[in-house]
Amino acid sequence: xxxxxxxxxxxxxxxxxxxxxxxxxxxxxxxxxxxxxxxxxxxxxxxxxxxxxxxxxxxxxxxxxxxxxxxxxxxxxxxxxxxxxxx
Length: 87
Known about the structure:
It contains 3 helices and no strands. With 87 residues, the protein is an all-alpha fold. It has a single domain (3-86), classed as Chorismate mutase (Chorismate Mutase Domain, subunit A, Up-down Bundle), CATH 1.20.59.10. Helix 1 (3-38) packs across helix 3 (68-86) and helix 2 runs antiparallel to helix 3. It is flat. The termini are far apart.
């Protein structure tokens, strides 16, 4: 298999990731509305820490090429960007 094949596979995964990230953001919008109704802050440090720990543990268990720290950094960016749509 050549580089074009693997790039096509990456392109397909990117399309899936975009769809999944938008689904996640849509859920965050719904959560943001509930938080606003209940007077809760958008940022929940304990929830975000829980997610980062879970993601790092999952990455470690999967033993893939991305380290648990790398995966946690990726999710930190995802949560930061998603938090913007909760407002």
